[in-house]
Amino acid sequence: MFLALALSTGLLLQASPASADTLLVERVRAESGDMPARGQSMAQVEKHFGAPQRKHAPVAGPGDRQHNPPITRWDYAGFSVYFEHSHVVDAVAAKASPNEIGPKPVQ
User: What keywords sit in the KW lines (predicted)?
Assistant: First the structure.
């Protein structure tokens, strides 16, 4: 029994990520105070963060606007902001480096 426990512990230690890896989730938690908050208007976001690097055209799903509202994305250097109509629904951090583990940036 002791041998089985020692072997399983050794296997778990080998499966852990390298200490040099930076997790996107950890960085986002640390930087979350420096991104737009849910519910802010486009005007508030632009006043606080300046003009975005790129404004994407609104995209709406099929059918009526009530159930598929237009979603607009603004890209800044370190994050993207998603708006439903003219209010923030989410802000998503971009990868800081190629070594950061997390989603790939949208091309």
Answer: Signal
Name every residue whose Cβ is closer than 8 Å to that of residue 99 and which is 6 or more positions away in sequence: 20, 21, 22
Is the pTM value of this prediction over 0.70? no
Instruction: Indicate the length of the chain as a whole number.
Output: 107
Q: What is the mean pLDDT of each run of 10 residues along the chain (107 residues)?
A: 50 50 59 83 97 95 80 94 96 77 59
DSSP H helical ranges for the chain: 2-15, 24-31, 42-49
Alpha-carbon gap, residue 46 to 80, rounded angstroms: 13
Single-letter amino acid code for the residue at 54: R
